[in-house]
Amino acid sequence: MCRAKIAKRTHDRPRQVGYAWRCCAIAFIQCLASDGTHAQTLSDTVQLHPFEVSAQRLEQFAAGTTVQRLDSATLERYRLADLGTALAGETAVFVKSYGLGSLATTSFRGGSANHTAILWNGFNIGSPMNGQIDLSLLPMAAVGEVSLQHGGTSALWGSGALGGAIHLSAPPRFGRGLLVHVGAGFGSYGDLRQQARVEVSGTYGNTNITLFQADARNDFHYRIGDGARSERREQINAGFQQQGLIAEQHFRLRARQQLSARVWLQRTGRHVPPTRVQPTSTAHQADGTLRATAEWSRTGHHTDLAVRGAFFDERLDWTAADDDPVVVSRSRSAIIEAEARLRLSALHALDIGLNNTYAQATTDGYPHRPEQDRAALFAAYRYQGSGGRTTGSVSARQELLDGAWMPFTASAGMEHAVRPWLKLKGQGARVYRVPTFNELYWQPGGDPDLLSESGFSGDAGLELKLERGPFQVRSTGTIFSRSIKNWIIWLPGPAYWSPHNVLQVWSRGLGTDSELACRTGRSTWKLGLLTDHVVSTNQRPTGINDASVDKQLIYVPMYSGHARIVWEQRNMTVRFTAAYTGYRYTSSDNRQFLEPYWIWDVHASYRLQMKARWSTVLFVSANNLFNADYEIMLNRPMPMCNYQAGVSLQFTKPVKTKDRT
């Protein structure tokens, strides 16, 4: 059993290891490129679908895992919101939000925020400093597709994917012509949001530019105290501003090759409001982001190749008070990956690849500028039964971090269609997470000798789809179990907090997602129910008098769920939702907790078709209809009843695609 510690930095060995792996990647591509097609002279131009290896790894080599995709209607409904708002409203993922415009992170199946891998077009965009990303800084206007992969996926995506992975992608679409989409919305507490997107898509090229902007005062009212002694207070110092640009360029090179480049620029400034127990706050922070990626892919008769690279530059300027100096935290990451997918036969496929990730960070809390060089070799195999009823996959990954071997990870899954309307699935995996820069080097408190978190996870479930006359039924149910040892937790000491490998956490539970649809005349009714039951407990005491054993982890609701009623008629849609969040304990002995709450929302939209090329969508939403007074995080108030309204306008001009022979 591997218990490798993080290697001491030598300043030369990591660079040698990274150089060696990059050389291997070049040799790897040169060897695989000879799939028997490059020596042939093509007399015909063959129209092929765009090739995207990152999507293929999710679609083809993750048999047995539960994958939830947000449909186009859902994406349109949240187009002016952020990713945290969309996940909280549409999925079972618990979003730990500190308030409007404030920090929002995920809790996947009882895990912590750094147990979720968030990937943008195949690249993990989590911060190397704290291993997570603020969901409120990810606007929905920046993504084209959102998929949630539940369960341990470290073998496919690397360190951190213990609880699940969130895939953000925008695959290019050629031959669509001109598309212009603009939208604007306004709401309570000075909320104003705008976005514009222009896409020019031809047979051999695709250009896509998206601009987005948002700002709000967030000066909502909340109450302090209970009963007659309660006091009405206004949230202060809570405003934010955000601007961003995403530019994408895609080219088809000949018939079998594609070249893509993407740039994501974003700047966010926000104030940090006081908690319920603080009289005031003047803290504020500024976040700056640069994300750039490039990818070349080639589709062969038996082998598909891809080489991709990325550079991420994240900066956070923190000011605790107006007169205090600015604390600057900055991290940079460079990623290069080579991947090949081999179609061995009609029933068998193999995916192999190399990945090298280099990261460095600077902040006043580090005694030096830490660096991290992580190299990985991964492989996945897929079997597709001749009748299409059975699909199986096996994947494995071995990583080398600064000269030290990390825990070997692997996964295996299978899906089998018992009937055309019933599918059984299951998956098991070994997972791990390496400590972050903050856990290793933060002073005071960081421990360079921390061990990697590692463990096992498993899923089993069923998927049902039925259609009888005007009725359609869809339902999925999944049970899961995950055991993680060397779980890192920050504990108080005589003078400061420090991280320790002291917890052994067992998470288990059941999740369901069901929908009944009925078409009556021109109307369609949909009833949906999503439930989540999670028990996540510590199995090992942290000290002599530790009372956390067999107790639920803090901020992990044991019960949560969503119910919805949707009515659709032609271009009109009305949607009622009710979300329940159960008790969340705020102390490890479970003696202190936050009360459960219900949130009721309503959303209505109307699509107006204007001639053949123009369309307009009007929408209005009312949130927290019954003025629930609730907290997601302790002493962080949330808004009472509030509204949003907006309009979007779309223009399309298709082009005629010429068939070439």
Description:
The chain has 661 residues and is mainly beta. The chain has a single domain (46-653), classed as Maltoporin, Chain A (Beta Barrel), CATH 2.40.170.20. The protein is built from 6 helices and 34 strands. It has a 22-stranded antiparallel β-barrel. A 5-stranded mixed β-sheet has the order 1-6-7-4-5, with no helix packed on it. Strands 2-3 form a two-stranded antiparallel ribbon. A hairpin with a 7-residue loop joins strand 16 (303-319) and strand 17 (327-343). It is globular, with a radius of gyration of 25 Å. Mean pLDDT is 89; it is low at 1-51.
Q: Beta-strand percentage?
A: over 45%
Which word captures the global form?
globular
CATH architecture annotation name: Beta Barrel
From the alpha-carbon coordinates, what is the Rg to the nearest angstrom? 25 Å
Q: CATH superfamily assignment?
A: TonB-dependent receptor, beta-barrel domain
Derived structural class:
mainly beta
Helix fraction, binned, reads: under 10%
Through-space gap between termini:
58 Å
Low-confidence stretches: 1-51
Specify the CATH class.
Mainly Beta
Q: Biggest sheet, in brief?
A: 22 strands, antiparallel, barrel
Total separate domains: 1
Number of strands: 34
* Average pLDDT, all residues: 89
CATH fold group: Maltoporin, Chain A
Number of H/I helices: 6
Task: Give me some keywords for this one.
22-stranded antiparallel beta barrel; 661 residues; mainly beta
What's this model, at a glance?
The protein is mainly β.
Write the layout of secondary structure elements.
Elements: H1 13-32, H2 53-60, E1 66-69, H3 72-77, H4 83-90, E2 94-97, E3 104-107, E4 116-120, E5 123-124, E6 145-150, H5 154-157, E7 164-169, E8 177-187, E9 191-201, E10 205-216, E11 221-224, E12 231-234, E13 240-253, E14 257-271, E15 284-299, E16 303-319, E17 327-343, E18 348-362, E19 371-384, E20 390-401, E21 404-405, E22 409-419, E23 422-433, H6 437-441, E24 453-468, E25 471-492, E26 497-520, E27 523-538, E28 559-569, E29 572-581, E30 584-585, E31 593-594, E32 597-610, E33 614-623, E34 642-653
Parallel strand pairs: 4-7
Antiparallel strand pairs: 1-6, 2-3, 4-5, 6-7, 8-9, 8-34, 9-10, 10-13, 11-12, 13-14, 14-15, 15-16, 16-17, 17-18, 18-19, 19-20, 20-21, 20-22, 22-23, 23-24, 24-25, 25-26, 26-27, 27-28, 28-29, 29-32, 30-31, 32-33, 33-34
